[in-house]
Amino acid sequence: MSGSAAETLFLVFFGAAAVWFGIVVFRTHSMVRSAIALLFAQTAVGAMFLVMQAEFLGVLQIMMMASEMSIMAIFMVMFMMDPGGLGAMEMTHQKRLSLKAGGAGFAFALGVILLGGWGPAAQEVPAAAAQTAALGRELLGRSMFVFESAGLTILTAMIAATMVAIAPQGEKEG
Amino acid sequence: MTFELVIVLAMAAALFGIGIYGALSQTNLVMIMMGVELILAAALLNLVAFWRYLHPETMAGQMFVLIVMTVMAVEMAVGFGIAVARFRARGSVEVEEARELRG
Amino acid sequence: MTVLAIIAALLAGVWLLAAIEGWAAHGRFSLIRPLAAALALLGRESIVPRKADRLFFEVAPVLLLVAGLLAVAVIPLAPGLIVVDLATGALFVNAALAYVLVALIMAGWGPDGAYAMIGGWRFLGQFIGYSMLVVMPITAVAMRAESLSTVEIVASQADLWNIAYQPLGFVLFVIAAMALAWLPPFDLPAAEGDLAGGIEAEYAGARLLVLRLARMVIVLALAGAVTTFYLGGWLGPWLPSWAWSGLKTLAVASAMLMLGRHLPRIREARFLELCWKAGVPLALVNIFLVGVIALVVPT
Fold first, then answer.
1. pLDDT over 90, % of chain A
2. Is B69 part of any domain?
3. Which of A86, A163, C113, C242 has its CA 20 to 30 A from that of C284?
4. What is the ipTM of this complex?
5. Which domain holds residue A49?
């Protein structure tokens, strides 16, 4: 089946891109580059959603990550000692332990993936428009309570984060 | 054989491993958050792959993805709120300098 | 065939818009001048600043152009005359144009110049203001069309254009679109006289040409989006449908280029305040009203 072969090819391509950009995030010294690399890793993940025919989620992921990671970039510039990475500062600790933990996590997940019996793959996926409509019905029907709690959680987080971040009363803005 | 599913899950596992490495090895709060974002991206990838290859007719799978995206946004908001407060109080967001958290 | 027709329309649109922008800026309408200016830019040396982040510096104008082209791809010119009719087209316009922000931050950071960098970060501040005002009016439009597909959105306006159905959303969306394309009075990232060109300050020659071309494509894409979402797209009597969408898009784009030219520039902090204290509540009111009308008025 040629459609399936193309799908596999695109999945491998975007997956490799996501992993490569993910590695770049922690390899580069320039902080803005690091944030933009994370952005492109997330965009590649969004492209994988599109390949897997989850059109709404893919577009949403690509849209959300552009703004989220750009905001990440400005916080990096604000809070890092050397955002341009010109001094090639060392900014890691317990490197060997982290490498081991990351490798162990990867190996463990890979083992589960290869050993798990996944059963037959589904062939038919609802068309994109039908999917979006069904997702809307799911969100405002059966899963409405969960969805509304998520909305309330994010509102609470917004208010709490603003409260924590604003300058204490009486302090002059520097 | 669900070849595509295994490929996507393997890519997600790799992203997960990189995220763990980043979250544990970086000394800056913002960089640690980037590691966490990668871990969450791996989770998103898993959820979409399970929806696509195992249960494409169940929309609750896609709903779960939206919830994880919300979690990502909440993580960003709270993390940056803490980072700003910490920077205002101590002038740095390096976790090595957060000695008062040491028990 | 469709793609070729759309590319031709796009090139013609960009050329006319450049002429109109020159007319608004210098008071003389000339069709030759944009071409001459483009040729001159091509011939000039394209300087790379010292210690530039070379990767960002090179990628930023191209990314800007790609973002604009992707947004154009889901805008219908006529029934069937569209590059891809995505089921989530209305959201995709916004997703593609979110990368304008990324490109401008890269263009600001890349050249390692103070003015450019301030311009790039200013646009981030501006983005936090306008981004909600792009998405929320689109939500109201999609509610009426009961679809996110741009073709269906145009079809839903056969009886009454959305500009009459939801004027509040139209006003908010046009303001957000002008901020997105950093047109005056929201031209903080490239403020002449304030930042000496801002993000454009360090670009020269062919790279500057790509940057300016990309900006015109973005203006055209946004005007096309306004036409599709609020002005009934290709709908109209007598003329063929492609002529209607072309004329409407050009009219909207010229209005966007000329309207704000005589207003004072808005500082990004003030813009943020306006957007979040006035814009977001108004957008919510708009969504609420459209919902009420959709429920009360039988279709």
1. 24
2. yes
3. A163
4. 0.87
5. 1-84
Interface check for A38 against chain C (CB to CB < 8 A): the answer is no
A4 within a domain of the structure (yes/no): yes
Q: Cβ of A129 and C147 within 8 Å?
A: yes
* Inter-chain touch A66–C55, beta carbons under 8 Å: no
- Write down the pLDDT at residue A87: 67
Strand partners, B94: B28
In B49-68, the residues whose Cβ lies within 8 Å of chain A are 49, 51-57, 59-60, 62-63, 65-67
Over range C121-142, report the average pLDDT.
Answer: 90
- Identify the pLDDT of residue A115: 86
Residue pLDDT, tens place only, B27-77: 888 888 889 999 999 999 999 998 988 888 888 888 999 999 999 989 988
The CATH number linked to B78 is 1.10.287.3510
CB contact under 8 A, C92 and A60: no
A174 assigned to some structural domain:
no
Nearest to A68 among B25, B51, B76 (CB): B76
A20 vs A33: CA distance, rounded Å:
14
Backbone angles phi, psi at C247, to 5 degrees: -65, -45
- B59 within domain boundaries: yes
Question: B41: distance to nearest CA of chain A, Å?
Answer: 7
Neighbours of chain A (3+ CB pairs under 8 A): B, C
CB contact under 8 Å between C87 and A59, yes or no, is no
B43: in domain: yes
A129 interfacial to chain C (CB closer than 8 Å): yes
The residue extents of the domains of chain C are 2-296
pLDDT digits (tens, 9 = 90+) for C47-84: 777 777 788 888 888 999 999 999 988 888 888 778 88
- Residue A1 is predicted with a pLDDT of 44
pLDDT of residue B12: 92
Q: Give the domain extent around B42.
A: 3-90
Q: From chain B, pick out residues whose CB is under 8 angstroms from the CB of A72.
A: 30, 33-34, 37, 76
